[in-house]
Task: structure prediction
Amino acid sequence: MPETFAALQVDTEISQPLWRQLYMQLDDLLTSGALREGASLPPERDLAEYLGVSRSTVKRSYDQLRHDQRLGGRGRGGSVVRKPPERVQPTLGPLRGFTEEMRELGKTATTNVLQCEIVSDRRMASIFQRPSNAQFLHVVRIREGDGVPMTRELAWYDLSLAPEMAFWNGSGSAYERLRDLCRLELGGAEQSVEAVLSSPLESDAFGFDEPQPCLLFKRMTRIRSGALVEYVEGTFRGDAYVYRIELEP
Amino acid sequence: MPETFAALQVDTEISQPLWRQLYMQLDDLLTSGALREGASLPPERDLAEYLGVSRSTVKRSYDQLRHDQRLGGRGRGGSVVRKPPERVQPTLGPLRGFTEEMRELGKTATTNVLQCEIVSDRRMASIFQRPSNAQFLHVVRIREGDGVPMTRELAWYDLSLAPEMAFWNGSGSAYERLRDLCRLELGGAEQSVEAVLSSPLESDAFGFDEPQPCLLFKRMTRIRSGALVEYVEGTFRGDAYVYRIELEP
DNA sequence: CAGTGGTCTAGACCACTCG
DNA sequence: GAGTGGTCTAGACCACTGA
Result:
């Protein structure tokens, strides 16, 4: 057994489950930095034999670490330590898009457009208070800061209010386009924030093996006249994004 | 086997794991409302025999539902279906406390003061930019809306700025007290919002068996002169709380 | 005190992957 | 192709809890 793991041990006399004892000891190894990113944990079978427990018990500990997103790897490569991503902290006061946020943080915003099409959607028609055959531009994007996927975003734009959006390919800043090309004066937005677990699609986009806590933003953006022009649902990975607000007295 | 569960079945020919097949079928039963709050699932052993799988496989499905907080119960009572709590949606514009939020939602705010004492704390002294022997009132509270625990809140108040807070017992609104008793004019706040999993203490306070996604607020409240008077860290349960903001153009 | 879920074992087969 | 984790089984003992 490699020296790093020689000190691991479990004790059936302790009231805590064996798997939890092992989990916490491994946790210490990761947190203390004794195991860096890319390091390998022993194969489950080896560590089980060394500790004198069954493979299931070791596996349960490893599973917990995988669930915490601190362990990755599969197949021949075994179990590999992951690095927790750093959190960015955009200072958000007024209405602003992802591109602007990243620019101010000195990061490069890149966008991966998964879908960009004109749709009719009863749910959206109801949100926008439009007839049910109204047309919207629907965009699905993964947005990255310095190459790290930060958010998965579903957006709808009212094409009767902003017909020029129909020719948008989904890249870059939607707000710049609304302002400069559609010549719309934005009037503010109502936004809600929830804590949720990532859906399978989002977990996949962020590289999570299991659902992780995320911030779910829903935003309704209006033009100055009060008409709704944009509805967005964005899921931001909780391990990499902190939302900041200034509150007035 | 009770009629509700007679339709359950798993198939080894399908590429999906047996436990996941079962998990999704049970999920359907809960979501569709076929199983209401308080209903019982069959004992693991019984369902395992009925489906022709081992108890471990059924257990893994049940574990997943427990992890999702949709299953509770232990011991003789077996596995009992839980009801997901409704979410409240406070509309939050300017600086406002929990008590005010709940009042506007027509809910009664109650507070459970766990700790309320005068402390010296290097970390707080550093946040407040005070000498390290400075004294703060430290309050730990569970706050409830209509009796449901909504948030666990750690707060610190600068006693040199608001000496009258020293005699506070922690109940009611801190902001009313700061305004009316200490005669301080509040000047605004910086707030950050993160998505995290609840800590063991918080899980316990909210009645979670396992960590659940929560909104973690950190707020620094200043008086008009700019001096920091309050620092709060509040964890709001994600399944019961949606944060709403109005954004200016 | 009987039945429940929590934990653990020893062993097996599989799909995948990397050397 | 050898080694890895993913899954599953059959069986066991335990602590707890509610009837």
